[in-house]
Amino acid sequence: MAIPVEGETIQIHSYKHNGRIHRVWQETMVLKGTKNIIIGANERTLVTESDGRTWLTREPSICYFHAEHWFNIICMLREDGVYYYCNLSSPFVFDNNAIKYIDYDLDIKVFPDMSYSLLDEDEYELHRKEMSYPDVIDKILKRNVDKLISWIQQKRGPFAPDFIDAWTNRYKFQLDMQADDC
C-alpha cells in the first residue's frame, strides 16, 4: 500500500457495504501519513454525494484515519469549540491518491463539553438488512462503538486536549509553506 506524503493533497472516498460510492471529499492536505495512520486537514472543501449533489464544508477540520480501527474521526473547529463526528467504518486503505473506507451508518457526535450522542441507529438497522451485513461485522462495529466511547471518556487519541492544537499548528505550517512556494 502506498503512503501519502506530508503536505500532499488527497481525496477521501466513502463507500457503502454494497461497493457503491457514498461521498467524496475533493481535497484534504496530509499532515501525517504512515501505513497505519493518516491525519489530514481541510477547509471549505467540495464534497460530492452519491446522487451528484455537492456542498462545501463550513469550517476547518482535522481528519483521523487508522488502518486497524473500525472508525474514523473528523474534528470540526468551530467558533464555540471542537465538535467531533465519528464514523463507524471499515479501516481505511490508501489507493490512487485517496483514503477509502466503507461507511457503516452508525455515527457518534461529540460536543465541545465531551458529551456525545450515538446517531443513525435506524439507518444502520435498515442497511444491515438491505445489504446483508455479516454478523461478524455487526459485532465488530458494536465493539468499536464501545471503544470510541471509551476514547471519548478517557480523552484518548483525537479527543486528547493537545491533539487539536498540535495538528492545527501543523496545518497552518503546511499552508504557510505552500504560500511561500507560490
Automatic annotation (TrEMBL):
Similarity comment? Belongs to the Ntdp family.
Organism source for this protein?
Lysinibacillus pakistanensis
Which residues are named in the active-site annotation?
A: R23 (proton donor)
- Reactions mediated catalytically: a ribonucleoside 5'-diphosphate + H2O = a ribonucleoside 5'-phosphate + phosphate + H(+); a ribonucleoside 5'-triphosphate + H2O = a ribonucleoside 5'-diphosphate + phosphate + H(+)
Q: Which InterPro entries match?
A: DUF402, FomD-like_sf, Ntdp-like, SA1684
Where the record annotates domain DUF402, the positions are 18-156
Q: What is its EC number?
A: 3.6.1.15, 3.6.1.6
What this protein needs as a cofactor is:
Mg(2+)
Q: Name one GO molecular function term.
A: ribonucleoside triphosphate phosphatase activity
The protein's role, per its UniProt record? Has nucleoside phosphatase activity towards nucleoside triphosphates and nucleoside diphosphates.
What are the binding positions for Mg(2+) 1 in this chain? N87, D103, D107
Positions annotated to bind Mg(2+) 2:
D105, D107, D120, E123
**Which Pfam families does the UniProt record give?**
DUF402
Q: Does the keyword Acetylation apply?
A: no
Write the protein's name: Nucleoside triphosphate/diphosphate phosphatase
Recorded hits in SUPFAM superfamilies, A to Z, give: FomD-like
What NCBIfam families does its record include?
A: PRK13662.1
* Organism domain of life: Bacteria
Q: Which UniProt keywords apply?
A: Hydrolase, Magnesium, Metal-binding
Keyword Hydrolase assigned: yes
Q: What class of enzyme is it?
A: hydrolase
